Structures are given as structure tokens and as C-alpha cells.
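Record type: ASSEMBLY
Status: queued
Input:
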Amino acid sequence: MKKIEKFKKPFLLTSVLIQVSWIFTGQAQAMHISEGILPFQWAIVWTLAAIPLIAFGLVRLKKQAQEEPSFKPLVGLMAAVVFIISCMPIPVPTAGTCSHPCGTGISGILVGPVISILISALALLIQALFLAHGGLSTWGANIISMGLMGSLAGYVTFKILRYLRTNLAIAGFMAGLLADWATYFSTALELALGIRGDSPFLPLFWKILIAFVPTQLPLGLLEGAMTAGMVTLLYKKRPDLLIKMKVLRAEEVKA
Amino acid sequence: MRRRLGISDFGFRIGGKRSSGFRVRSSESRIRREETLKATEKIILLFFTLILLSALTIPSWGFAAEKWPGVDEAVVKKIAKEQGREAREPLIPTDQGDLLLFVFLLAGAVGGFIAGYYWRVLLVEKRTSKKDEPQGEIS
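Status: finished
Output:
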């Protein structure tokens, strides 16, 4: 155990440095499911699935903003963070490709999955309209994968790990990691369902999922580190805010 | 005194020797919690070592046709094309030459400004008016 303790910090530091060094290599392009990739009927299905979630998010936002004055600035911050992070292409030298983290892990933890879906929908809409990033026909599918699955995975992971009394940073890390992986898992699912034609579903699903692995495995680690960093930073700066947002219980904050 | 815990404690010995051989319940549960946390950390560390190793050893697959393509190009569009689906032009074609760089720059600047503004609202202005709020350690 002592040996592990001795190497834990250098290992984590090295991992982070490797990930950060990947950010600064080469030029990059963007992701999300592009315009026109999904057939019309699947585009409709995913959009119809996403619209009630957005509406629910709007209702919750209005309600929570009335209850807690700090909520709106936090939602504004998270919206900006999700927007920036989810259009920030990061090169991954081991795969020779670029991809982006999602940011929905941290927003799911801090403002809850419902508001996080609303935030993702807004970010994805702006990206589809002005950044040639994603698409209007694939907007619903991208909301389901990044907004719903990412936020939910982050939120549930964080809550379970905190319930098991895991350290805040570790819980944040795992939440970010699984939010990222859940997003790309569901993207693979949506793609396989949409583009398979007469082909069998499972082989195509595995093919897409495995093709995501070299890029998303390391990026998931980066997203985990970012999420852990943001949660612990907010904890140090504004623990009261985390209590109000029900991220932590009051008794978890030692005076 | 040393005790071996059950499978739920990952089979690790709990630490802390006591001369009296007695423990109060709170200290026992604290030790148990610390041991569980350490064991969890150990597993997570091992897990990420494996992930990092696999990420470094998985070869660059043949789907990277150009330098640093996005996974939309390298995976989504490529596989969709194989299945007979092609991506369409975006509604507002900002992906023309360096125009895309400009809109990304603009989006980054606006997004960064908003993030910075709300960061200040939340963490600087509110903090100055809430100095009595608890500032604590991670439990």
C-alpha cells in the first residue's frame, strides 16, 4: 500500500501531463453526428425524444431559479463551459484523430441532469447553426447522447460514489469519465440503429464503438480530470453553493 | 490487534494497533471506511493504469486518412459512407476556408467571456458577501 501511495501522485501527474501535451499537438477538426447522416425517420425519433426533455428542463430552470438566486449564474457558467468544451477538438496522438470532451458530466453533477440536458441542447443548437458542428437533423440524436446519456451517467456515478463515501475528487473523476464514455456509447448505438439499413445491428454497433475506443479512452480520462478539478475547485471556493445545489450534504463539509 | 475483514472490504487487513484490544464503534467504522477508500483507490489506480497502457499501445488504426481528422470524419462519416449514408452540407456553410476558424474564435471568445463573467459572479462577488459560509476540507 505504501508503494502505491508513493507512486500514485507521480503516476497521476504523468497521466495528466500526457493528456495535456496531446492538447497542443497539431490542428484539429470537430465531431458530433453530422448533418444528414441519420435517415429522416431516425432524426424525427430522436428529436421527438429530446423535445420533452428540453421542455422539462425549461420548467425546472424557472422553478429552481426562483428558489435559489445563485442558480442562474451557475447555469450560465455551465452553459458556457459545456459549449466551449464540446466544441474543443483535442488531438489524440495514439489514435491520430481528434475528438472533444462533453462537459455534461460536470453540468450533470452541479445543476442536475434535467437542466444539463437543456444546456446541451442550447450548446448543440448554436454549434449546428454556426459552427458546422453536428447538424439540425441530428440535433435530437446529439442531445440524447451528449445531453441525456452524458449528464445522467455523470450524475448517477457521482451520487453512487458519494453515497459509498468515495473521495470527492475520485467521484468527480469517475463521473466525468463515465459521462464521456456513455456519450460515445450512445452515439454508437444511435448510428448503428440509423445507418444499418439491412445489415445486422450488433456487428455494426461493435464496429462503431470499437472505432471510437482509441480516441475516447484517453479523452475520457481527460474529461474525468477536468471534472474532478472543477468539483474540487468549487468545493474549496464555494462549498455553500455545492450544499445549496445538493451536490454535497451540509454534514460532509467540515467547518 | 489485527483483524481480517470480509469480502466487502476487498480482503485487506485493517490497520491501527490497539493495546487494549477494544475499539469504540465510531473509530472502527472510521478505520473500515478509510480501508475501503484505500482499497477503492487501489482498484481505480490499477484501472487507469490499464486504460493508459491500452491507449498507448492500441495502434493508430487505418481510418485516419489525413492528419488529425475528427472522429466525425474518421469514424462517423467513414462508416456511414460504407453503409450508403453521406453527410450533407450544414444549413449555414461556415466551413468554408478560414471562415470556420473565425467562427470558432468568435464562439470561444464569447463563451469564454460568459464563463468568466459568471465565474466572477459566483466565486468573487458572492464570496465577498458570504465570508461566514463554511470553508472546509473534503470529507
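Annotation: Residues 16-30 of chain A have pLDDT under 50 and may be disordered.
Annotation: The CA atoms of residues 206 and 223 of chain A lie 23 Å apart.
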